[in-house]
Design brief:
The protein has 120 residues and is α/β, with parallel strands linked by helices. It has helices spanning 3-12, 42-49, 72-81, 95-103, 112-115, and strands spanning 19-25, 28-31, 36-37, 55-60, 86-89, 106-109. Helix 2 (42-49) packs parallel to helix 3. The chain is globular, with a radius of gyration of 14 Å.
Length: 120
Protein backbone atom coordinates (compact mmCIF):
# COMPACT_ATOMS: atom_id res chain seq x y z
CA UNK A 1 0.00 0.00 0.00
CA UNK A 2 1.47 3.33 -1.08
CA UNK A 3 0.56 5.61 1.82
CA UNK A 4 3.33 8.04 0.81
CA UNK A 5 1.52 8.69 -2.45
CA UNK A 6 -1.78 9.10 -0.61
CA UNK A 7 -0.26 11.62 1.83
CA UNK A 8 1.05 13.67 -1.10
CA UNK A 9 -2.31 13.41 -2.86
CA UNK A 10 -4.25 14.71 0.14
CA UNK A 11 -1.90 17.69 0.32
CA UNK A 12 -3.04 18.67 -3.18
CA UNK A 13 -6.63 17.41 -3.25
CA UNK A 14 -9.01 17.60 -0.29
CA UNK A 15 -9.74 14.23 1.29
CA UNK A 16 -13.48 14.84 0.81
CA UNK A 17 -12.92 14.74 -2.96
CA UNK A 18 -11.07 11.40 -3.09
CA UNK A 19 -12.69 8.02 -3.66
CA UNK A 20 -10.35 5.04 -3.51
CA UNK A 21 -11.12 2.16 -5.87
CA UNK A 22 -10.63 -1.29 -4.38
CA UNK A 23 -11.07 -3.88 -7.10
CA UNK A 24 -11.06 -7.47 -5.87
CA UNK A 25 -10.94 -10.91 -7.44
CA UNK A 26 -11.52 -13.92 -5.21
CA UNK A 27 -11.18 -11.65 -2.21
CA UNK A 28 -7.78 -10.18 -3.12
CA UNK A 29 -7.12 -6.67 -4.38
CA UNK A 30 -6.32 -6.54 -8.07
CA UNK A 31 -4.21 -3.94 -9.88
CA UNK A 32 -2.95 -3.21 -13.38
CA UNK A 33 -6.35 -3.44 -15.03
CA UNK A 34 -7.35 -6.49 -12.97
CA UNK A 35 -4.45 -8.52 -14.37
CA UNK A 36 -2.45 -8.83 -11.17
CA UNK A 37 -3.49 -9.79 -7.64
CA UNK A 38 -1.68 -8.50 -4.60
CA UNK A 39 -1.55 -10.10 -1.17
CA UNK A 40 -3.98 -7.60 0.33
CA UNK A 41 -7.63 -8.00 1.20
CA UNK A 42 -9.91 -4.99 0.85
CA UNK A 43 -11.67 -5.47 4.18
CA UNK A 44 -8.32 -5.54 5.97
CA UNK A 45 -6.88 -2.33 4.48
CA UNK A 46 -9.96 -0.11 4.42
CA UNK A 47 -9.40 1.31 7.90
CA UNK A 48 -5.80 2.15 6.97
CA UNK A 49 -7.05 4.00 3.88
CA UNK A 50 -9.85 5.93 5.59
CA UNK A 51 -7.67 8.96 6.51
CA UNK A 52 -6.98 9.55 2.81
CA UNK A 53 -10.46 9.42 1.27
CA UNK A 54 -14.15 10.19 1.51
CA UNK A 55 -15.21 6.68 0.48
CA UNK A 56 -14.58 3.63 -1.63
CA UNK A 57 -15.58 2.23 -5.00
CA UNK A 58 -15.48 -1.54 -4.51
CA UNK A 59 -15.68 -3.64 -7.65
CA UNK A 60 -16.17 -7.39 -7.47
CA UNK A 61 -14.10 -8.21 -10.55
CA UNK A 62 -15.33 -11.82 -10.56
CA UNK A 63 -18.84 -10.58 -11.37
CA UNK A 64 -18.16 -7.30 -13.19
CA UNK A 65 -19.96 -7.18 -16.53
CA UNK A 66 -21.59 -10.58 -16.03
CA UNK A 67 -25.04 -9.51 -14.79
CA UNK A 68 -24.82 -12.61 -12.57
CA UNK A 69 -26.04 -10.79 -9.49
CA UNK A 70 -24.24 -8.82 -6.82
CA UNK A 71 -22.36 -10.81 -4.20
CA UNK A 72 -24.27 -9.35 -1.27
CA UNK A 73 -22.34 -11.40 1.32
CA UNK A 74 -19.07 -9.94 0.02
CA UNK A 75 -20.41 -6.40 0.11
CA UNK A 76 -21.78 -6.96 3.62
CA UNK A 77 -18.27 -7.98 4.69
CA UNK A 78 -16.87 -4.76 3.19
CA UNK A 79 -19.60 -2.69 4.85
CA UNK A 80 -18.54 -4.08 8.23
CA UNK A 81 -14.95 -2.97 7.57
CA UNK A 82 -15.62 0.78 7.27
CA UNK A 83 -18.15 3.44 8.11
CA UNK A 84 -17.20 5.49 5.04
CA UNK A 85 -19.49 5.48 1.99
CA UNK A 86 -19.11 2.56 -0.39
CA UNK A 87 -20.16 2.31 -4.02
CA UNK A 88 -20.65 -1.38 -4.84
CA UNK A 89 -19.98 -2.59 -8.38
CA UNK A 90 -19.96 -5.95 -10.08
CA UNK A 91 -22.80 -8.09 -11.32
CA UNK A 92 -25.68 -5.84 -10.22
CA UNK A 93 -28.68 -6.75 -12.37
CA UNK A 94 -31.91 -6.14 -10.43
CA UNK A 95 -33.60 -3.35 -8.56
CA UNK A 96 -33.91 -5.77 -5.64
CA UNK A 97 -30.10 -5.93 -5.43
CA UNK A 98 -29.88 -2.14 -5.55
CA UNK A 99 -32.36 -1.96 -2.65
CA UNK A 100 -30.41 -4.65 -0.74
CA UNK A 101 -27.19 -2.67 -1.19
CA UNK A 102 -28.99 0.49 -0.09
CA UNK A 103 -30.12 -1.33 3.07
CA UNK A 104 -26.45 -2.14 3.70
CA UNK A 105 -25.76 1.59 3.45
CA UNK A 106 -24.16 1.39 0.01
CA UNK A 107 -24.70 2.93 -3.37
CA UNK A 108 -24.71 0.72 -6.46
CA UNK A 109 -22.81 1.18 -9.71
CA UNK A 110 -24.92 -0.40 -12.41
CA UNK A 111 -23.28 -0.81 -15.78
CA UNK A 112 -23.96 -3.76 -18.05
CA UNK A 113 -27.59 -4.20 -16.95
CA UNK A 114 -28.27 -0.57 -17.88
CA UNK A 115 -26.24 -0.77 -21.07
CA UNK A 116 -28.16 -3.86 -22.23
CA UNK A 117 -31.47 -2.49 -20.90
CA UNK A 118 -31.95 -5.53 -18.66
CA UNK A 119 -32.33 -3.94 -15.24
CA UNK A 120 -35.29 -5.81 -13.80
Amino acid sequence: MNTGFLRQLTKKIPQKEIIIALDTAQGQITIDGWRKRVALQAEKVMTQLEPFCAGFLCTDVDREGTMSGANLKWFQKLRAATSLPIIAAGGVKTRREIVALEKLGMDAAVGMAMYKNRLR
